[in-house]
Amino acid sequence: MNLVILERDGVINRRPTAEQAGSWTPLPGSVDALTRLHRAGYTLVIATNQSGLGDGSLSLDQLEHEHAQLTEAVEAAGGEVAAIFYCPHTDTDQCKCRKPMPGMLEAIEAEFNLSVTDLPVIGDGPEDILAARAKGARPLLVGTGRGTHTRQSLPAEQQPEFFATLADAVDTLLQERD
User: Fold this and answer.
1) CA dihedral in degrees (11, 124, 44, 19; nearest 10)?
2) Which domains does the chain show, CATH number per domain?
3) What is the pLDDT of residue 16?
4) Inter-CA distances, 36 with 141, 169, 170, 172, Å
5) Residue 38 Cα distances to 11, 23, 80, 124, 173, angstroms
6) Residue 10's CB: how many other CB atoms inside 10 A?
């Protein structure tokens, strides 16, 4: 199975502020990029930290509304999101599912009955890169969201593959597949 794991906020959509809770705004080109991946035979899975649930700044109804907006936009473009995994905890909870811990990736492995080793994990933050590396996955960093700052903060030996946008990362994945 060709599976790609993606962070949501900062990769697919703009990072929502507390005032924007429950609304979803895609980044330019992201829905098309997801659709191209799906049409090329990739299974799309989102793995996202959502601490707003844990700290009360986001309700479950608001999060589900955001996820419905995301999946509906991708479906309207001809793609499909297979699953969305999220961690509702805050940093202080010290759970195993909150990235950079690999718990969400382990849940994806269990759900899809596969290993994420060498599979692409596309993110914009250091927690995405660390979670991917903890499971032997292939971390891809995009410059949207916090990606440019993340890239600047990592030492040279810890730099993952870098792409300006999700569309650029998808272009590379699709070229590698040809």
Assistant:
1) -50
2) 3-15+23-177 (3.40.50.1000)
3) 73
4) 19, 12, 8, 12
5) 16, 24, 6, 21, 12
6) 22
- pLDDT value, residue 18: 64
Gap between the Cα atoms of 48 and 3, Å rounded: 16
- Residue 13 in contact with residue 30, Cβ under 8 Å? yes
Q: Where do we find the tokens 């649930």? A: 53
Measure the CA–CA gap between 134 and 121, rounded to whole angstroms. 12
Cα–Cα distance measured from residue 150 to residue 144, given in angstroms and rounded to the nearest whole number: 10
Look at residue 58 in the predicted model and tell me its pLDDT: 86
As averages over each run of 10 residues, the pLDDT of the chain (178 residues) reads: 95 81 88 98 97 89 93 98 96 94 98 98 97 98 96 92 98 91
Whether the model pTM is above 0.85: yes
